[in-house]
Amino acid sequence: MPVGPGTRRTREVYLAGDLDPAPILDDIIDLADERKVTIREIARSKFESMTRTDGAQGVLALAQPVRPTPLEDLLVAERDGSHPFLLLLDGITDPGNLGAILRTAECAGVTGVILPRHRAAHITPTVAKTAAGAIEHLRIAVVGGLPAAMQTLSQSGIWTVGLDAGGDRSIFDLPVANDPIALVLGAEGPGLSRLVRERCDTVASIPLRGVLDSLNVSNAAAVAVYEVARRRA
């Protein structure tokens, strides 16, 4: 079941006591009151001790944890009949990169994200903040290992396309872009792990015209998912 507005109950909202008046604060207070959520105004020092992100902006909400989506729920067509459009993240460890990728994925219409349970970043306050609300709408599955999950995808007729600088074809020349598809992105630096790369049906690259030989993984994700989204439009 997708995670959407209202499926995660907010338990409390904390406001730093030194905030200047602003319309967005009025909206937050009104929404909290409407949903009978307790609002507490606390000193800035206490507020800072409670936050787990850099550059907190003075509002903190305590909510229920994000509920993972079972992998099998991501393998079927959407209600409108569109094919699965998945994103597999192979060992992304930087919370900022993960949050940025999730934000882009939601905006591009990705229907589900698959994360490995071990040696990878998961949903943290930093990831949630960087994702700017995407985790409330994206379905996210957590699996024991990506290679086994990729085998399940293959059995369900979903093509897996790895993204790597040494890919066999350009991301702009994917004949399977309109089919059920899963893009697989590797970790910062090492890229795709050996077993994950071997399980990919094909490996594609993003053509680079400059001197540098790679893109940041979140930027590479943006280019790749929007190319697939363009082809599926």
The succession of helices and strands, N to C, reads EHEHEEHEHEHEEEHEH
Work out the helicity level: 25-40%
Reported for the largest beta sheet, the result is: 7 strands, parallel
Oligomer: single chain
Helix and strand content put the structural class at: alpha/beta
CATH homology superfamily name of the largest domain:
SPOUT methyltransferase, trefoil knot domain
For the record, give the distance between the C-alpha atoms at the N and C termini, rounded to a whole number.
24 Å
Tell me how many strands there are: 10
Spans of 5+ residues with little confidence (pLDDT < 50)? 1-6
CATH topology of the largest domain: Alpha/beta knot
Indicate the CATH class of the largest domain.
Answer: Alpha Beta
Kindly describe this structure.
There is one protein chain. The protein is elongated and about 55 Å long. 31% of the residues lie in helices and 21% in strands. Helix 3 packs parallel to helix 4 and helix 3 packs parallel to helix 7. The chain contains 7 helices and 10 strands. With 233 residues, the protein is an alpha/beta fold. It has 2 domains: 10-63, no CATH class; 71-232, 3-Layer(aba) Sandwich (Alpha/beta knot). Strands 6-5-4-9-7-10-8 form a 7-stranded parallel β-sheet, with helices on both faces. A 3-stranded mixed β-sheet has the order 2-1-3, sandwiched between helices. The protein has helices spanning 23-34, 44-50, 95-108, 125-131, 146-155, 194-199, 217-232; strands at 10-16, 38-42, 59-63, 85-90, 112-116, 140-143, 159-163, 169-170, 181-186, 202-205.
